[in-house]
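A protein record pairs a chain with a discrete description of its three-dimensional fold. The following entry can be read in just this way:
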Amino acid sequence: MKKNDTIYLISNGDFRDSACEVCWPMQDTTLKEVQAAFKKLGKKTTVVTKYDAARRHGFITKQCEGTAVFSKIEAEAPVVIVLSCWAYAHHVTGPLQTHRGPILLLANFDGTWPGLVALLNHAGTLERLNVAHSRLWTDNFTSDDYFMQKLEEWCRTGKAAHSTRHLTDAASLRIVPSAEKLGRQLAANIRKHRRIMGQLDPGCMGMLNAVMDPAKVGAAGMPIEYLNQSDLLAEMELVSDEEAQGHLNWLLKKGCNFHWGTDGFQELVHGQVLSQMKMYSAAGRFVQRYGLSTIGIPYQLGLVRQCPASDLVEGMLNNMDRPPIKDPATKEIVRKGKAIPHFNETDLGAGIPQLLMHDIYEMKGMPTETTLHDVRWGRKWEGKFVWVFLISGAAPPAHFGGWKKTHVYRQPPMYFPKGGGTCSGISKPGTITWARCYEAYGTLGMDCGLGEVIEMPKEEVQDRLNKTTPVWPIANVHIPGYDRNEMMATHMSNHIVIGYGDILQELIATCLQLGMKTRVAGDVRNSLR
């Protein structure tokens, strides 16, 4: 980077102006912090995306706006995407594909204002699109020594490099014979019988890291069945009120805790949940009709304008103990007594490990429930860095200890104007296997490891919920050797998949047999050498 280069600061945001308006004050504060940090290093900055009084924010909200902004910046100029809230990556990743100057993704590290979640999504998307870039994150800006050191490095060299010592090539590790055998058997079965991945409207949420090359995924034995949101809505219309009410009655008899209200604009009401029960049946019918092994429904952006949230539906599908769905054509119960892996936000990079983990659990006679979570935030607790994994509702009740420990709250109106219930609870303590599939520079890869869901005092859990989104399901997770700086430096998504029990070696063996580049993260690698 040239000594006198002006550094261009860009505010990427949500698609929805209502969300951007709420988030702008924090973004404005973050921009000032970023400018102060560069000034401390003697660097000149300019904020490209200005505050718009009519929209009451200064975010880019569409890809066309992003292309317009970049058309005014020299292709060799250093640019910083400043992130303090959730943002749709494709607004800027298209222009960044042809940008030749240094690119930095810079985020705050905060639970309430999750720039870090957006950073991980943007980084995974740029990796998917083969765009070189750097990452930086902080909760203290100029008083964060690591952040300032890496910012200076980026200013000097155009790159901010982080240690990758926490990652190990799984092919170099020692796997027990029983796990190797299971991996060979499962991979052979997948290649022979295939596992069809049902993906609705991929890319509609701007997470291009969730959209993978069907040639590569299909060659691994997991062909994609592309479905669409409009057909899901059409199928919902064919589900009777009686069938939908039957699902709701089943949940009530199981002791599920619905937090009802009377004002549908702000509270959970019966009609919202009845619609969700119709979506549950419709999704099950799709699974039967197309022979799907998994399904992924993206609630944003299309469905958000048409029906209540999909999240309760997703949690139900991911659970072995769930209401029976009768296929109208065959009159058979769809996957009776089995979980149907659902990948939230139609993120195929979560769907693939959920599928593999489900099959491994089933082969080993273990509970098969899995879910993805957002890597939402984290902080130290009793000497350990404990992550807050949080998602809008796809977590299965089995992870909380069953339906009696499951709570259904109305989704926040800002993001979910038509309401609908969450599938919420506090994940029970225990050992977990975690994973994330990704595509980077033309190669499919899998990161994985072991962690532990930590049991915490109610006060600590509630404080973590209050600092994030209190109506969403939470897992408080410690992954030895994969703390804040390690995960933020190399994790390939804003999402992470978890399931209970240690099946790491079986997962590694299966992935390697399927030809996936596999990396083990954290201290667990030391026990496999």
Observations:
- Residues 17-40 form the longest helix (24 residues).
